[in-house]
Write a structure and sequence with these properties.
0% strand; 70% helix; single chain; mainly alpha
């Protein structure tokens, strides 16, 4: 369905993406968001379209929206993560924290106020991820805690797995964590 829509709207690819992003089928919405950065990176309509999908009913669409929002900005920028954390559902906020963990010390420092707010989030999933990311910023403490607490070590392994999954292409059939 998405391919047919793109073919029919070849003269206006952003129009096709806008129509697909509003489709009833989640896979069509995911594909639209996956293509959004390559088609509309400079468009002022792109960021609001991706941000609106952060609260979609389908988790795959929400994650594709986060991917698109990040891809629409400069690499390493904290702005899309800050915006996604503010507007996203708990799973989006936890994924944002995973991206902060994977982004290294510079990104963790740039978004330290977000990380501090996340420690007091209403969602236990977000608080747990925030705690792990905070611990990772202190390697000596992390090693000692992981040696003494098997549950914390398993939680770190889960966060590491999720962070690695963030580098997989999402939104296209056959790719991403939803197919694992």
């Amino acid at each position: 369905a998405y391919s047919a829509l793109r073919t029919l709207s070849a003269a206006s690819p952003l129009g096709a993406i806008r129509a697909a992003a509003a489709a009833r089928a989640a896979d069509v919405r995911r594909r639209a968001l996956a293509e959004l950065p390559s088609v509309a990176k400079g468009s002022p309509l792109a960021r609001p379209m991706a941000a609106a999908a952060l609260s979609d009913a389908d988790v795959g669409v929400r994650m594709a929206a986060l991917d698109a929002l990040v891809a629409l900005d400069e690499p390493g920028s904290g702005a899309p993560l800050r915006a996604a954390f503010a507007a996203g559902t708990p799973d989006v906020r936890a994924d944002v924290l995973g991206r902060i963990a994977g982004g290294g010390a510079a990104l963790r420092d740039a978004l330290s106020e977000l990380l501090a707010r996340a420690l007091d989030d209403a969602s236990p999933e977000v608080r747990r991820a925030a705690f792990l990311v905070s611990v990772l910023g202190r390697p000596v403490l992390a090693v000692r805690l992981f040696e003494k607490d098997g549950d914390l070590a398993r939680a770190f392994a889960d966060l590491s797995r999720r962070t690695a999954e963030l580098s997989l292409p999402r939104g296209l059939p056959g790719f991403g964590p939803e197919t694992a």
